[in-house]
Design goal:
With 266 residues, this protein is mostly helical. It has 2 domains: 45 residues; 198 residues, Orthogonal Bundle (Globin-like), CATH 1.10.490. The protein is built from 11 helices and no strands. The model has no long low-confidence stretch (mean pLDDT 88).
């Protein structure tokens, strides 16, 4: 009777893990296929069987994530669009228009790739280093306090409500990392850690659309919180936050934010 090999799967579905498993199969190939007896042959066959079983499981998980990606993107885009429209009542029609365009891009992002770390960082710096985007101390406190009031657990639960592809604990960790690194960005002007965080999800095996949707689900509730802080802080934070999303999608969107939102607002 054939039985499935026991594997010690720890949730790693990254390309690096697949490479390790394929290397294990290649390393044990001669012994596993030798037809000889002995402990070394048995060990090789066991290692090969376990590696193949884990590869199959990883591919199954990846396929499921891809199938769920479209629905997750669609629901995430609706949430972002609604919040962007609410903030647009305060910041103007152009803000609503660009926020809706970003939401539309998110909805249609299935199968696409997010931009590279260097390109994303260059794009967000176009916005944050614009002389009109200097944040005074009082606004910086208001902006970061709003971020600190966000609960990673609550956002993770909301995401689980619209997508079943992610483990709750992993989601909460991702959201908390985004929260902390967004605070660093606003406090120190260093957006590199946040951009690396999102990039690391994709390197770890998460489809790019899923990564963008998770980030969007952090952005939307934060935009809603901005309605309760001073207008100058709302303007700066609202522009930077949608600029983060735009940076992962298309540099042309970033240029529009720079040209259409920042100058009229200051």
């Amino acid at each position: 009777m054939l039985t499935s090999p026991r594997i010690n799967f720890k949730g790693d579905i990254s390309d690096a893990r697949l490479k390790t498993l394929n290397n294990t199969i290649a390393f044990n190939k001669l012994d596993a296929e030798s037809g000889q007896a002995g402990q070394s042959v048995r060990n090789a066959k066991k290692a090969t069987s376990q590696a193949k079983a884990e590869i199959s499981l990883i591919n199954e998980i990846r396929d499921k994530n891809k199938n769920d990606e479209g629905d997750f993107l669609l629901k995430s885009s609706y949430i972002l669009s609604g919040t962007g429209n609410e903030l647009g009542k305060l910041l103007g029609d152009k803000y609503s228009t660009i926020a809706n365009e970003i939401a539309e891009d998110i909805k249609n992002f299935q199968g696409k790739k997010i931009r590279s770390y260097d390109d994303v960082l260059k794009s967000i710096n176009k916005i944050t280093k614009n002389p009109a985007m200097v944040i005074n101390d009082a606004d910086k406190v208001a902006i970061t306090n709003a971020i600190k009031s966000l609960e990673a657990d609550d956002i993770a639960k909301n995401i689980k409500g619209i997508s079943k592809s992610f483990a709750y604990a992993n989601l909460a960790v991702k959201i908390e990392n985004v929260r902390q690194k967004t605070i660093i960005g606003f406090e120190n002007g260093d957006w590199g850690p946040l951009m690396l965080e999102v990039q690391s999800w994709v390197v770890g095996g998460l489809v790019a659309g899923g990564a963008l949707a998770i980030l969007s689900n952090f952005v939307a509730p934060y935009l809603a919180l901005l309605l309760g802080i001073p207008l100058t802080a709302v303007t700066i934070a609202g522009v930077i936050i949608i600029g983060i999303l735009a940076s992962f999608i298309d540099d042309k969107l970033v240029d529009r934010i720079n040209n259409e939102l920042i100058k009229p607002a200051h």
